[in-house]
Amino acid sequence: MRGDFMRRFIRDRSGSTAIIFALSIIPIIFLTGLGLDFSSATEKRIRLNEAADAAALSMVTPTAMQESCLTAQTAAQAIFTGEASLITGLNYSAPNISGCNDGASTRTVTVSYTASSVNTFPNVFALLTKTPETTWTITGSSTATSTISPNINFYLLLDNSPSMDIAATTSGINTMVANTSSQGGCAFACHETNPAADNLGNPNGEDNYALAKNLGVTTRIENMASATSSLMSTALQMMNSNSVTCPNGPGCYEMAIYTFNASTLNTIYAPNNKPSSNLAAAQTAANGIDVLEVCKNNYLVCGTGNNDTDTNFETAMKAINNIMPNPGTGTSGSTPQEVLFLVTDGVDDEISSTCSQALDGNRCQQPFNTSWCTTVKNRGIRIAVLYTEYLPLPTNSWYNSWIAPFQSKIGPNMQSCASSGLFFQVTTDGDITAAMQALFQQAVSSARLSQ
């Protein structure tokens, strides 16, 4: 009997469901509580990450970039804590903000936080840890970066010597050569007050400048004037689209325009000898850029010969260097950055007693001495160079004797004058306007990376 009872007891399955449920209720409760608290903490972390994103982004807006780090940081902390205060069941403190440096043109900030989510089922954890876990730690961070558009003063130094008044296209050159046979074929539209003294053979005794206009030939210097005017318009549009307020900016571009030739720096536009943000006025002034007018061949001024030494780089570079102040970072409250914008065909033509290419009367034609470029760049002023290629003229005896020997050195010499990444070359038939626009855009873009 006893044996049968034991066997029946062992085989009996009645009540097993209750036993299994009783044994499994603990992990079910544990997992349910864990899931609810985990879901709650995850939701809080998402909201805190959004708050950190908003705080970080608030420090790199255009307005905030003009404020001190302390001011921007205070506002960012208020944004984070304002959002965090709306989350129930959360313990938090002000976030940690790092990476902001006053005066820097690029600001990269990181907003990091540590908070704790209050658990709804703290005693569930006690089943495993023997002590109730009342909170769940939450951490996160957000990083934002932005580069301020610095305030930049541009000093345009434009070569308007007679060699820059060559016809701008191949067809224009051919037209000029075909119509100046009595001169041996001349592609330059030289502007003279006394052309009769040179017996040019042009209709009505006109100079080559008037001849080019009558023939409908566009010259390089006309293209340079048009390109300069267009550049003023582009810079103005950029500032207007960004709602820039000059002179504090950010992104204020002020312009001064000068030409150079024989021995002087000629002011085209520079109110009070300084750059101005009145780019509409600068645009109007740029339209008036024209070639140097001389008396006749070998005479800049009638009665005073100068052997056509009409391109003096050293005088121009020295003068512009004295005008330009030392640059700053370009941020609000700082001196603007400075950029010298040089447009030229790169051939020096002046009186010099120390010239490897000395001609009669110490006339010197050579690639210009870049020592002044080094002086300017050493001051922290960047130089943007647009080299309008000095056109080879193999049919011209003067070119063959004095320019051809160093023709291959002109371009590399001009590039050595330019700051890194700020050199463009335009050949015959090239688009000076497009090249000048590209050079300007590069100067603006690289300015953001230079501080």
Low-confidence stretches: none
Query: Superfamily at the CATH H level of the largest domain?
Result: von Willebrand factor, type A domain
CATH architectural category of the largest domain:
3-Layer(aba) Sandwich
Q: Strand tally, please?
A: 16
- N-end to C-end Cα span: 100 Å
Percent helix range? 40-55%
- Radius of gyration, in angstroms, nearest whole number: 38 Å
Shape descriptor reads: elongated
Oligomerization state: single chain
Q: What share of residues are in beta strands?
A: 15-25%
Look at the structure and give the mean pLDDT: 85
CATH class of the largest domain: Alpha Beta
Order of helices and strands: HHHHEEEHEEHEHHEEHEEEHEEEHEHHEH
Total helical segments: 14
Give a nutshell description of this structure.
With 451 residues, this protein is of the alpha/beta class. It contains 14 helices and 16 strands.
Secondary-structure blueprint:
Blueprint: H1 2-11, H2 16-58, H3 62-65, H4 69-84, E1 90-91, E2 96-98, E3 106-118, H5 122-129, E4 135-147, E5 152-159, H6 170-178, E6 191-192, H7 208-215, H8 220-241, E7 253-260, E8 265-269, H9 279-286, E9 293-294, E10 299-301, E11 304-305, H10 313-323, E12 337-344, E13 347-351, E14 363-367, H11 371-378, E15 382-388, H12 397-403, H13 407-417, E16 423-426, H14 432-447
Parallel strand pairs: 5-7, 5-12, 6-9, 12-15, 15-16
Antiparallel strand pairs: 1-3, 2-3, 3-4, 7-8, 10-11, 13-14
Helix pairs in contact: 2-4, 2-5, 8-9, 8-14, 10-11
